[in-house]
Amino acid sequence: MATRLCDANLSDLPEAIARPTYDRGAVTPGIVHIGLGNFHRAHQAWYLHRLMQQGEALDWGIIGAGVRAYDEAQRQKMAAQDYLTTLIELDPKGTSAEVVGSMIGYVPIEEGNGPLIAQMADPAIRIVALTVTEGGYYLDPATKKFDPSHPDIQYDVANPNAPRTAFGAMVAALRRRRDAGVPAFTCQSCDNLPGNGEIMHMVIVSLARLMDTDLADWIEANSAFPNSMVDCIVPATGPKELALVQDFGIDDAVPVTHENFRQWVIEDRFCAGRPAWENVGATITDLVHDYEAMKLRILNGGHQVIAAPADILGIETIHATMDHPEIKGLFRKIALEEMAPHIHAVPGMTPEAYVDLIDERFSNPKIADTVRRVAFDGSSRHTGAVLPQIRDAVAKGTPLDGLALSQALWARMCEGTREDGSEIVANDPVWDDLKAVARAAKTDPAAWLGQRHFYGALADDPRFAAAFEKWLRMLWSDGTVATLKDYLN
């Protein structure tokens, strides 16, 4: 029988399972993390747990938080097991498990976010961190600037003491701290966005300025917004993962699986202190932009390059996608010839060596990462990770044929049917709009590039537009594999 995961049962877990060696009762709050999904628990929470295992950072315990009604189910599951998480490392050489205990609470989910605001206003909280996905920052898709017209933002401006968004709650908490004479906290983005700290700064200060100019000035002068780059492939948890944790002898309702690789690169810009993450492998550097460009363009951009043809062909996992010779070839050719030339080396890693590393990571057969998860929200992920590379290629006159093909594949996928005739079900917040345009583009490819909120002036570049049209017409006339072969040859 598996042992139910909770503090009282830690000593009863199977001997091979690593577990907290520190006194969790002595851990006090220092961080609120909004968006407590699998990635955070496999990544940031793990780094903090490793520090605690060394007897450090016991005053930096994590309080989880969410701002949507569906977060309550996750909170209840976590609370029932004292906020412990089993992390299962999926290494091709062998699978292992450990229990992480750096999270010590989870704010109740309530409309108006009163408990969350109160928790963030507590002087003990010195960092408020977020993992809310690339599309969760209320940015205009075309300009990548803060969008004050979004209904959620308008709601928060009208209801500053009972906001709907995480950012509105953070502004409300900072207002309370200012009014009480309490120092500001650091606002730390942990999302896959270029310049994520700068984006967080723009969103928080812009939202505050719509409510209270003096408050915006106070936040500007007193808070901090460090840039960071995060990296670890963390699949969604489903029946397979729930069965796997039982195989380890642990009854955990919310286990997390992850690859045998992590990276966290952080700018050292904090206004109220921080844990010594560098003592457990994080990189503290002023070169965050170089690291993030390499990762966002080759890993995140590479994910979008391979997910669309995989979905069209009915391939379900990323490692199986990399077993497909034409899709693997597509990734490597685009990455080496069209991505790497625009990327700076970082200490210990050239762009070409990074392509090999990502090839190996994508090919890990233990990581049953799904094509559907990777392809989700392509409207945010293509615009964040792929389109900036096309703009660079246009500006510099460098090759872009493969990048144009990646957009034709995305358009073909969004038409909503696979080559075997099966349906590709909705997989984007604006799926209905994408599908309608993709169906029009089947006979008029320019219709897809006419989505100016994504492509902007790229639609007017004759070299990119001609390549896109050629590839999309070929995908519909000759099929995916033949089109990929034509590009590779």
Note down, in words, how this protein is organized.
GO terms for molecular function: oxidoreductase activity, acting on the CH-OH group of donors, NAD or NADP as acceptor. It comes from Sagittula stellata (strain ATCC 700073 / DSM 11524 / E-37). Keywords: Oxidoreductase. This is Mannitol dehydrogenase-like protein. With 489 residues, the protein is of the alpha/beta class. It has two domains: 282 residues, 3-Layer(aba) Sandwich (Rossmann fold), CATH 3.40.50.720; 201 residues, N-(1-d-carboxylethyl)-l-norvaline Dehydrogenase, domain 2 (Orthogonal Bundle), CATH 1.10.1040.10. Helix content is 47%, strand content 11%. The protein contains 22 helices and 13 strands. The chain has a five-stranded parallel beta sheet with strand order 6-3-2-7-8, sandwiched between helices. β4 and β5 form a beta hairpin. α7 runs antiparallel to α8, α10 crosses α13 and α12 packs antiparallel against α13. The longest helix has 26 residues. The model has no long low-confidence stretch (mean pLDDT 96).
